Amino acid sequence: MNTNKDNPPAIRVVLADDHDLVRSGIKALLGMIKGVEVIAEARDGGELVTLVDSLRPAVVMTDISMPGMDGIAAISQIHARHPEVRLLVLSMYDTVDFVKRAVASGACGYLMKDAPPFELEQALRSVMATGSYFSPAIAQRLLQPSEPTVDDELTHRQVEILRLIAQGKASKEIAYDLGLSPKTVDVHRARIMERLQINDIAGLTRYAVRKGLVKP
């Protein structure tokens, strides 16, 4: 006779990545792990937050750079609403800046997309058992000195505006998206340039890419 101990409940996972092929590959790998079930998939942060609100998974595995609401913003919202959900980042970015921003927002683990498949299971088991997992390469980087994060240098609103600037949007479009006036957006842009000591849009875009606000 089977007992609950013999057959523990499956680890319910929601997976988020804006690349369908990447997401399908990760889902296939997760499907090979005993006791793990991918219950839903999201293509962006907004969709991810909605799915977590309705499904209450045990674990969220999410990319950082996604269109619309990015992974960092989604992690922050999910952590605030559902602190019991384990939030594991699966990213191609390994800079200290990315990792610290993710952790500050509520992530409990960070795994590289080029990690060997066995590490995916190791990360899942670890966040469920101990509450955290950082791949060896990431743990090593966290011990190194780092430059200020984008959140150290800019306000939350400025980060939002910088991301949209780097996506090629004009002041009027940004104003519409954020419910601001174009003049207010222009003032923020000037302050962003002043704080970062960057004098053109191309420079702002390069900074946003380096900090992971937009994809290259």
DSSP strand count: 6
CATH H-level superfamily title of the largest domain = Response regulator
Would you state the CATH class of the largest domain?
Answer: Alpha Beta
> Which geometry do the CA atoms define?
globular
Percent helix, as a range, is 40-55%
The major sheet is characterized as: 6 strands, parallel
Distance between the amino and carboxyl termini: 55 Å
CATH architecture of the largest domain: 3-Layer(aba) Sandwich
Strand order of the largest sheet: 2-1-3-4-5-6
Broad structural category: alpha/beta
User: How confident is the prediction overall: mean pLDDT?
Assistant: 89
Q: Which stretches of 5+ consecutive residues score pLDDT under 50?
A: none
Organism: Ramlibacter rhizophilus
InterPro entries: CheY-like_superfamily (IPR011006), NreC/VraR/RcsB-like_REC (IPR058245), Sig_transdc_resp-reg_C-effctor (IPR016032), Sig_transdc_resp-reg_receiver (IPR001789), Tscrpt_reg_LuxR_C (IPR000792), WalR-like (IPR039420)
Protein name: Response regulator transcription factor
GO molecular function, one term: DNA binding
Walkthrough of the structure:
It holds the Pfam family Response_reg. Keywords: DNA-binding, Phosphoprotein. The protein has 216 residues and is an alpha/beta fold. It folds into 2 domains: 132 residues, Response regulator (Rossmann fold, 3-Layer(aba) Sandwich), CATH 3.40.50; 61 residues, Arc Repressor Mutant, subunit A. The chain is built from 11 helices and 6 strands. Strands 2-1-3-4-5-6 form a 6-stranded parallel β-sheet, with helices on both faces. Helix 2 runs parallel beside helix 3.
